[in-house]
Write a structure and sequence with these properties.
281 residues, alpha/beta, 5-stranded antiparallel β-sheet, 7 helices, 24% strand, globular
């Protein structure tokens, strides 16, 4: 049984501040350790539940945060960026279940360090509904016929998952007290709960319903600055629907993820261009 695990950082127990999630911050090293240990809890649980192969995707920021020499040696790890399928890279149709660890709320929602893929995205909508990274990656998994069995993070994202992915289990490792404030479980307690939930999700993977996909993906992204929207509108098929908004319709989940990733990098270029202009004044 092959299990795919995507691990982010913002939804990890003991993580709540920007200083922890940005490389070079004083708390980043500690957050790396906490992220790695939650990944290990999910890996151990997956093997306890019957997994014979586990692939872990390092899904935060620059995507090279996990401490590889501290990871459970039974798992393989995909890391580094850019990658075509971003947080879902490595997920294939022969995976029986996907587990999302350390995930967080969407941009615009109340939640610890809430955002959707980029700090430069104010909102991402698919087929008219605002979505989180969890939902985008779940749609990609669905395109492979793979169900999501577990999502862990703060109370905000877990409440959303209970509504939009009702067959997935959730583990709330902290409650949001603000954008960069949380009431967290002790990391050891969080890891105990994650390991148990991962084991149960893998054990019951065959009974999870096969996910369904929409016929198309109508994507609307609101960006932080007009320059960002202008750059994203250069992608063939993309229309600028407002000063800071873009719109595109794609047929496949692969193209959906590809568009979001390309938009992320173009938005970053736009931010750098604006900063360069400001610093020259």
């Amino acid at each position: 049984m092959k299990v795919f695990i995507s691990v982010d950082m913002e939804g990890v127990a003991g993580v709540a501040t920007l200083d922890q999630i940005v490389r070079g911050g004083g708390g980043y090293g500690r957050a790396q350790e906490l992220m790695t240990q939650e990944a290990n809890a999910a890996i151990a649980g997956a093997f306890d539940g019957g997994a014979t192969e586990v692939l872990v995707n390092d899904s935060h920021g620059t995507m090279d945060n996990l401490l590889h020499d501290r990871l459970d040696p039974r798992a393989r790890v995909v890391f580094g960026a850019p990658r075509a399928q971003c947080m879902a890279h490595g997920l294939t149709a022969d995976s029986q279940v996907a587990l999302f660890i350390g995930f967080h709320a969407a941009a615009g929602d109340a939640g610890v360090l809430a955002h959707t893929f980029s700090a430069y995205f104010r909102e991402v909508c698919i087929n008219g509904a605002p979505v989180s990274e969890t939902e985008v990656n779940a749609l990609y998994a669905a395109s492979m016929g793979v169900p999501v069995g577990l999502v862990t993070g703060d109370d905000s994202i877990c409440a959303k998952v209970d509504k939009v992915l009702p067959h997935a289990s959730t583990v709330v490792v902290k409650r949001h007290e603000g954008f960069s404030a949380a009431d967290s479980l002790h990391p050891e307690k969080a890891r105990e709960l994650i390991a148990a939930a991962a084991a149960e999700a893998v054990k019951n993977a065959s009974s999870l319903p096969r996910p369904e996909l929409p016929d198309q993906f109508v994507i609307d992204v609101e960006l932080e600055q007009p320059t960002m929207a202008e750059l994203v509108s250069f992608i063939p098929g993309v229309a600028r629907s407002g000063e800071t908004t873009v719109h595109v319709t794609v047929k496949t989940a692969d193209d959906m993820v590809g568009f979001i990733c390309a938009s992320y990098y173009l938005a970053t270029m736009g931010a750098q261009q604006r900063l360069s202009l400001l610093t020259r004044r």
